[in-house]
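Hey, resending since the last one bounced:
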Amino acid sequence: MKRPSSLATLNDRTAGKKRPDLSAEAKAAAELVRAAKDQGLSLTGPAGLLKQLTKTVLEAALNEEMTDRLGCAEHEPDGAGSGNIPNGTRSRTVLDRQHRPGRLW
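The structure tokens again:
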């Protein structure tokens, strides 16, 4: 006796059932994928949607964490005088062994 494939079994169980509504996140993701395809943007790869989205989400999360830790947003005067003002700059100058300045970033 031939056993039905798991996909066929799944389709039989879900046939006639209403699909659940997509979450707001799923709808946003579907819209991003659709817009990327319309613009001819690759979904993966060095310039793809996934890389751009990952970069944007990570930067937003890191900025939010800095705001939480420092108690004020970037360039906000609330932390003035406390020494805890995020200035939006990440590069640093250091001295090498010959005491010449160099940029880290």
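The helical segments are 6-14, 24-38, 49-70.

Sorry for the duplicate.
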